[in-house]
Amino acid sequence: MSRIWSFQGGIHPPENKQQSLQQPLQPLSLPERLILPLQQNIGTPAVPRVNVGEKVLKGQCIADPGSHVSVFHHAPTSGTVSDIGMYPVPHASGMDALCIVIEPDGEERWAELEGIEDFRAASKKDVAEKIRVAGLAGMGGAGFPTDIKLHLSDDHIVTTLIANGVECEPYITADDTLMRARAEEVIGGLEIATHLIQPTHVLIGIEDNKPEAAMAINAAAARSPLDIEVVVVPTKYPSGGERQLIKLLTGVEVPHGQIPADIGIVVQNVGTLAAVYRAVHAGEPLISRITTLTGDAAERPGNYEVLLGTPVSHLLDEAGVDRERLSRLIMGGPMMGYTLDQPGVPLIKTSNCLIAGTQEEFPPAPPAQNCIRCGQCEQVCPASLLPQQLHWFAKGREFGKALDYNLMDCIECGACAYVCPSNIPLVQYYRFAKGEIRKEQVEQRKAEQARQRFEARQARLEQEKEEKARKRRERAEAAARAQTSRPQPAATNAGAQASDPEAQLKQLKTQAAVARTKLKKAQKALEQAEATGEGDSQALAAEVAAAQARSDALEKQLQQAQQQAQADPSKEPDLKALKVAAAVARTKVSKTEKALTEAEQKGAPSAEKLRDSLATLRAKADEAQRAFEEAERAAASGQEEDTASPALDIKALKTAAAVARTKLKKAQRALSDARETGDTEQIAEFEPQVRELEAQAEKAARALAEAEAAQPASPVEADLKALKSAAAIARTKVKKTEKALADAREKGLASADQLETALAGLRQKAADAERALQDAQPRAGAVEDA
Amino acid sequence: MTLIHTSSPHTGRPGHVGGVMRQVILATLPGLAALVWYFGWGPLVNVLWASVLALVFEAAVIKLRRRPVAFYLKDYSAVLTAVLLGLALPPYTPWWVTLVGMFVAIVLAKQLYGGLGQNPFNPAMVGYALLLIAFPVQMTQWAPPVSLSGDNPGLLATLKVIFELTPLPDAFTHATPLDTFKNKGALTQEELWAQVAGLKDSFGAWQAVSLAYLLGGLYLLVRRIITWHIPVAILFALFMVSGFFYGSDPSNFAPPLFHLTMGATMLGAFFIATDPATAATSNKGKLVYGFCIGLLIYIIRSWGNYPDAVAFAVLLMNLAVPFLDYYTRPRTYGHKKANKGIRG
Ligand code: SF4
Ligand code: SF4
Questions:
Q1: Chain A contact for B26, CB < 8 A?
Q2: Residue A520 — left, alpha, or beta (φ > 0 → left; ψ -120 to 50 → alpha)?
Q3: A259: distance to nearest CA of chain B, Å?
Q4: Share above pLDDT 70 across residues of chain A, in percent, rounded to a whole number
Q5: What's the order of all strands across the beta sheet hosting A79-88?
Q6: Got the DSSP string for A395-426?
């Protein structure tokens, strides 16, 4: 017999287990309909696989898992799917959720099942898959998908496998009954689990108030080839809590923030293990379970083998529950279970107990008194918390303090509330505080994301501004060059004209906008002042009038300027407008693309619509691009052959080549993605595209090379420009990193160190770039002088 | 059939605050009986008179605060405060002294802070300390053991004295052993025991009373109404420190047994320092809290101005409780070490 450790705290509430142990396990008659919630466990709801009106066989899969942490569901009997819709489900909040409703035909026709004959010879993957498709979820508590717990990745080395047969909550005897009636299956399931995770120790924990179950399990364990230790633990609530049981049987504590698997321990409920046995040996999916029905209102309390989806009311009727006396209907145990508002809800994979309590059995809680800090709660808390302090903090909404007092380690076992002489509903306070804290955290995360988005946008805008400034500079330089090379006053004029009205226009626009905003603000202030009767509304009215006048004047000026600008026959604005239009169209496309991929990932129904609009947007973008290119070409050809033009040409060509390359790369990536996923349709679509783009890119590269070769003009200049921009970029990067570093330092983030190293590197680079630029400048000057 | 919707847990241990308080009151009975046995009816009259005052004050304040009076009176906390103060008062304390004490205890020390559980200082000890400072004469006139004075004044005579219908006869006052020891001057231990008349008698009486308190305290421990941490820490600290000084100079310092059984040591260790509302929270904290009280009792008794020190020691440590609580939190399951300090 192995050693037993102990955990702190715990209570000994009246067991009340005898009532439901008077008769052996009994079957339950077929209800009129079965309601199967698509979500019976933590994780994501399943996705229905059947349609209304479809005939299903017993054990046939009717819903697929919605994600990794989700399970299959099966028809508990043969019949017809009569509805898929919202029904009340067993949940503490009494909510409705999507359910599949099956009307049994009473024939109990089974779907074809296939088990694994010798699981030891089968691969672990196959065995785990068998468990997965059987829809197994932990039957003791939260209903975590069993296959995940039993099919761990290789970096989890399991040393100890624990079967949880403790069942420490009062009233519940489902596991007790199961162990008595099906000890072989429990041991069989344990063997399979052992095969899957290869632990060095296999333990079964059973409380000493279940001697018969312990005997049955002992006998079955003795026949097993495995070395299974059956550990009888003293009765104490909550020994059956996963973490408490681990402490009890192994002496170690699961570290805060980790799961048992992280320290090489896996705990499985005995009911789950029996289901594992059936799933692997017979291929039988999880369609029924043992549920305890007890409570003083029940005439025939006992354990029933219920089909999943059986309405609670059916079980109540079968057990002869006196509806008159029934005052509290508890799903689960009296310590951690929740009350049902109505008996129409179905029994699900995790429904281990149903208590039909009378008023005398569960009298309403007496009114809460002040906490007298008696410390009884602290003495019984299995998590070694200070429940009285947590209560103060929750009550005073001091959530930061509650967190510091490890509120999140509270397992909501209710031991503290059980002993509290002031009858304070402590657990309720903790649930409230936890909910609030989680909400706060979500909001914080959102705010953080928003901040990052904002910063990214800011950075992008900055970059764009810089880009524009650079372009303007370049244009000015080109114009200047044009002037030097061909001193025509007209050109100067044109250049001056081209740039000046533009700047003016822009300035006017800003001014007008500012004036408008001011006006609006003044108006609002006035309105408010009038509404509340506060403040000097006369002065405000005067302000509004002034603002109005200014805004009007500016608006008029702006209009004039715009007209002028339009009247200006220069081609440049045209070109620019086209360019902007093309850019805008491109951004729209890329945005929509992003939205589409997101929607697709989430499987949102909007994906279809997005795809459509994406197609139109793409077409528009292409058109805009084409218009722009044409205009550009026209502009280029319209320009006389001067020394500046090849440079411009080369730049355009360079951009074109770059664009072509990027496009090509994108398409290539898409293609390889498609190949990976094996989507033949997409491959067929992308392949020609890639080929075409390849050709284009090549052409562009060739054109560029030719132009460059043809252009004898100073490469130094281009170099200089490149160097300049490189230096500028390096500078910006340094600045940004500096800011990030300061931020990180302020917040004491761990990333500060990393940033520091990065910053040093960046500074080096920036210095290098600066030096290179300075080196190049005199050279360039020399060339130009020459 | 209407189904109740409530949150778990759905059962609770029978018992409520009133029950807890009644248990504590019950546990003081052996001590009270011993006091009456050895010192006459005075302590009983004190306790009853204080209880009446406590209920009146408590009801008045609760009424002023517009709370249900019966609901709050039934928690018995006011009565417990009265019992504790009544036990600590000298047997023939004038009625108005008790009245002032109870007013301070219930109205100022408890209700003004928000009532039960919110008071930082032990109400009974606040009342006691104030009386000791304000009325030193009345508060240091302890009665002689009945065996000494020879005749046991009847209940009526006691009532008359307490309600000042007749003056306090000289025979009804007597120095307690702690007083005697405090004022022994240059006498050595041996001389003191040999010379002071009746010291042995009153020593024996006090020992018996302390034993009775101990009995009640053990009852509380068994019923799990208090934990062992505070009483054991107090007694341990007092034993160690008095043992140390006694060992170093036996003729000048009182032996450990003297300190453990004289004065209010046992009453303080089991009934007063364990007052949950004002004691440290965690088990670890309770140990530190109790240990410091034990030390303070000795220090104040030996070098302070007052013969007994339980009230001051407890009040001083009440002051330190918030701080203690921050630094003596238990280690939560799965955590490497306990959180410490003030955060959040
Ligand atoms: S058990 Fe209740 S009254 Fe006692 S300290 Fe805890 S919360 Fe306060
Ligand atoms: S409910 Fe939370 S605080 Fe209360 S005893 Fe259980 S774990 Fe401790």
A1: no
A2: alpha
A3: 10
A4: 83
A5: A34-37, A96-104, A79-88, A55-56
A6: HTT-HHHHHHTTGGG-----HHHHH-TT---H
Q: Which helix (H) or strand (E) holds B91?
A: none
Could you tell me where the beta strands, DSSP code E, fall in B61-130? Answer: none
Cβ(B12)–Cβ(A12) under 8 Å?
Answer: no
Lowest mean pLDDT among A11-25, A29-43, A566-580, B167-181: A566-580
Predicted local confidence at residue A739, as pLDDT: 75
What is chain B's length?
344
CB contact under 8 A, B344 and A365: no
| pLDDT tens-digit readout, A354-412 | 999 999 999 888 888 889 888 889 999 999 999 999 999 999 999 999 999 999 999 99
CA closest to B334 among chain A residues: A255
Query: Closest Cα to residue B274, out of B332, B235, B323?
Result: B235
pLDDT of A492: 43
Beta-carbon-side half-sphere exposure of residue A3 (alpha carbons within 13 Å): 6
Element (H, E) at A35: strand A34-37
Contact A328 B1 (CB under 8 A): no
Contact B10 A247 (CB under 8 A): no
Q: Please give all residues whose beta carbon lies within 6 A of any atom in ligand 1, as ranges.
A: A 371-377, 387-388, 391, 419-422, 424, 426
Q: Atom 5, ligand 1: which residue's CA is nearest?
A: A373
Q: What is the DSSP annotation of A321-380?
A: B-TTTEEEEEES-TTT-EE-S-TTSBP-TT--EEEEEETTTSPPPPPP-------HHHHH
CB contact (8 A) between residue B117 and residue A254: no
Asked if residue A642 has pLDDT above 60, the reply is no
8 Å CB contact between B309 and B294: no
Rounded distance between C-alpha atoms, residue A245 and residue B317, angstroms = 39
**Residue A210, both tokens:** 């279940």
Q: Please state the rounded mean pLDDT for residues B318-337.
A: 90
Residue carrying the six token digits 């409570």: A295
- The neighbour count for residue A469, using CB atoms within 10 Å, is 11
Interface test with A, best of B2, B8, B118 (most A CBs within 10 A): B8
A255: nearest CA in chain B?
A: B334
CA distance, residue A253 to nearest chain B CA (Å)? 5
Phi/psi for A355 (5° steps) reads -110, 120
Helix or strand run (H / E) with residue B213: helix B199-222
Provide residues with CB under 6 Å of ligand 2: A 380-383, 385, 387, 410-416, 426-427, 430
pLDDT tens figures, A458-480: 888 999 999 999 888 888 888 88
Give the domain ranges of chain B: 16-174, 180-330
Q: Is A6 within 8 Å of chain B by CB?
A: no
Helices A644-677 and A715-747, axial angle in degrees (round to 10)? 50
The residue among A333, A415, A420 whose CA lies nearest residue A382 is A415
Give the CA count within 13 Å in the CB-facing half-sphere of B196: 25
CB of A374 within 8 Å of a chain B CB? The answer is yes
CB neighbours of residue B100 within 10 Å: 17
- What's the one-letter identity of residue A376? Q
What ipTM, to 2 d.p.?
0.85
Half-sphere exposure of A76 (CA within 13 A, CB side): 30
Which of B225, B332, B337, B343 to probe by mutation at the A interface, max A CB count within 10 Å?
B332
CB atoms near residue A772 (< 10 Å)? 17
Q: Measured between alpha carbons, how far is A624 from A664 in angstroms, rounded to an integer?
A: 20
pLDDT higher than 60, residue A646: no
User: Is the pTM of the predicted complex or chain greater than 0.90?
Assistant: no
Q: Note which residues in 273-312 of chain B have CB less than 8 A from chain A.
A: 276-277, 279, 281-283
